[in-house]
Amino acid sequence: MAFVGHVNGLVGGHGSHGNVPAGSSCQRQSVVRCTPRTSRTVYMTVSKDAVAVPTNTHAPAAVQPGESHLAHADAYKFEDFDQYVMNTYVRFKIAITKGAGCKLYDSTGKEYLDLVAGIATCTLGHGDARLAKTVQEVMSNVHHVSNLFYIPPQGELAKKLAQRSIADRVFFCNSGAEANEAAIKLTRKYFFAKPENDGKVPVIITANQSFHGRTLATVTATGQAKYQKNFTPLVQGFEYCNYNDVEGLKAVVEKLKNSSTHKLAGIMMEALQGEGGVVPATYPFLRTARNLCDDNDALLIFDEVQVGVGRTGSLWGYEQSGVLPDVFTVAKGLAGGVPIGAMLCREKCNVFKPGEHASTFGGNFLATSCGLTVFNALFEGNVLENVKQRGAQLKAGLLELQAKYPSVVEECRGMGLIQGVQLKSSAGFTSIDIVGKAIEKGVLFVPAGPSVLRMVPPLVISAAEIAQGLSTLDAVFAELSK
Ligand SMILES: Cc1ncc(COP(=O)(O)O)c(C=O)c1O
């Protein structure tokens, strides 16, 4: 497949939440010269029948004689997209048409280093031959049958996840929000399993600046008014405290203890707030949450949708804190970009009975087979070690940039391959401006709000690619702070 080529501009939309302000610099346009590339299809035998598996060779192919990519400059109809797709994101104006490892290519053929990975999702990068093979095999055989029947890869993935975590049971769904919905329902069911709670309102405490999803319950759990505005009435049964505020958390629990109508059912926290600005939880905060749950027979839920599956350098984010949850949720990276979500829990709160919770697609052959491929790849390829090393390299480089640009960088935070740069309020530009400039220079970053720049690359990123990302950021800082 040859790239059709042409023009583009800068992206808008900060990741999954699309809240880049209209009119920000991401809407500027730029024309680029492009290097044409093609992908090749190689044939390999994956079962008794030979099937074509598009394997990414990562090798750019030569321009065909007479082929000009700029000649196709208007081939991608951004206007059509904008006319027909619902306007829920502000998008950066590039159309991605190819991926290879940690590189993406737009419809002009321009190459980008991808430090976004579909927002912490493409664990193995793009065009991974193992995932391609899995998808090919599953789709050539059986990919969906419903949960009325046993689905072997679902059982196998659940077993692997349970064997490598605190969980005993797994419920599969399709996204992070759905996994959190499942956790919220499970918490309520666990609460009402105790007769003394009859007639009380179960309350789950979450943190301000958290992000748990866009469904009504998860947007209520999300402690950010901007996501809730215009969607009232919200769901009952949520209270908030400031993240990492031990006394604040204790105060909310104390308030609930004194209530005759409401009672603590659970505490739901991210081990590191991703969307909220790449803020790791402190040990005292999570320890306090654990103790309060123990004291009140409430469930401690960790939302690991963004940090689970190796991103922090350990398989689960909770391993970084040493505080263990009763329930945790994962999605994003679990199947490397194939939609999947999962809610995992200990046996003590394995309270759902048949019919109480379900998902048509949840745990189907396609998603769970891809989950297995990603999971196996994490261990076969020593990917967690790569996350630790590349994460340390990235952090060290960011700290050097902080020293070089003291008027720009306030703080560098993160764990493993989720790193954030907090900008000084006096920097004179936003994270969205940085993303825009970096796109011009061929590197993709993602904002976590206007004052934090986030890096969440594929977990297989190389040392040279981290170095490229850092030198581009250096150049962007230099240019923007002129
Ligand atoms: C911590 C966290 N929880 C939940 C979600 C929602 O996941 P999804 O967009 O798959 O519903 C996200 C998405 O960014 C997230 O970062």
From TrEMBL:
Question: Source organism's superkingdom?
Answer: Eukaryota
What Pfam families has UniProt attached to this entry?
A: Aminotran_3
Q: Which Gene3D superfamilies match?
A: Aspartate Aminotransferase, domain 1 (3.90.1150.10), Type I PLP-dependent aspartate aminotransferase-like (Major domain) (3.40.640.10)
Family of this protein: Belongs to the class-III pyridoxal-phosphate-dependent aminotransferase family.
Q: What class of enzyme is it?
A: transferase
According to its record, what are the GO cellular component terms?
A: mitochondrion
Instruction: Name a single GO biological process.
Output: L-arginine biosynthetic process
Q: Does the keyword Signal apply?
A: no
**Parts forming coiled coils:** none
Q: Name one GO molecular function term.
A: identical protein binding
Q: What is this protein called?
A: acetylornithine transaminase
